[in-house]
Amino acid sequence: QKEVEQDPGPLSVPEGAIVSLNCTYSNSAFQYFMWYRQYSRKGPELLMYTYSSGNKEDGRFTAQVDKSSKYISLFIRDSQPSDSATYLCAMTRIQGAQKLVFGQGTRLTINP
Amino acid sequence: EPEVTQTPSHQVTQMGQEVILRCVPISNHLYFYWYRQILGQKVEFLVSFYNNEISEKSEIFDDQFSVERPDGSNFTLKIRSTKLEDSAMYFCASRTDTGELFFGEGSRLTVL
């Protein structure tokens, strides 16, 4: 079983729709969870960083963590064509120099 | 806004040649990383670096790879004798004390 599983998509939705992106993980030692946005041939850009179970909101983005189910989500409200990118979930065990483990990434297209 | 900068953006080299990829992490960060992403695949951890030494390395990071922080600002990845399978995007990242990891735009390495 992979440590982090993420549906690669592609996912295509109309502009203005609510987008839901998800990852599951197998290692209960993961404590810190991140969502990155990656445009083609660019570096990952940090969108959301969460530690505890629950929701965290930042503008049109909401990150949700359910540690009991080992399931994390990213919701995008009022999606825009500029949100079209690959979204990567990533997680790590503890702080310090611990590595991030990434999901495969979900390719998202928002259609005008 | 401070950012991680990487040079070169693209390097083409012949198999067997040495390559050095350079990074300037964000100035007050103490943890540094190299990741790579083969085209179409997930972002993979290579090595983490803290307090002038390697903290962790993956099985990809074999004897052909080395990292160095030659001065107070630069962080380099050297590949001694490149192979075809080293062709990838290489991302440098640096981390805050609170755990957020920020990536550079990447250096694309093409080995012929």
Calculate Rg of chain B over CA atoms. Answer: 13 Å
Pattern of helices and strands of chain A: EEEEEEEEEEE
Q: Which consecutive residue ranges of chain A, at least 5 long each, have pLDDT under 50? A: none
Order of helices and strands of chain B: EEEEEEEEEEE
The amount of helix of chain B comes to under 10%
**What fraction of residues of chain A sit in β-strands?**
over 45%
Strand percent estimate of chain B: over 45%
Going by helix content, strand content and strand pairing, the class of chain A is mainly beta
Anisotropy-based shape of chain A = globular
Helix count of chain B, per DSSP? 0
Give the count of helical stretches of chain A: 0
User: Which structural class best describes the helix and strand composition of chain B?
Assistant: mainly beta
Uncertain spans of chain B, ≥5 residues at pLDDT below 50?
none
Assembly state of the chains shown: heterodimer
Taking all residues together, what is the mean pLDDT of chain B? 94
- The count of DSSP E runs of length 2 or more, i.e. the number of strands of chain B, is 11
Notable features of this structure?
heterodimer, A: 112 residues, mainly beta, six-stranded mixed beta sheet, five-stranded antiparallel beta sheet, 11 strands, 0% helix, 53% strand, B: 112 residues, seven-stranded mixed beta sheet, four-stranded antiparallel beta sheet, 51% strand, globular
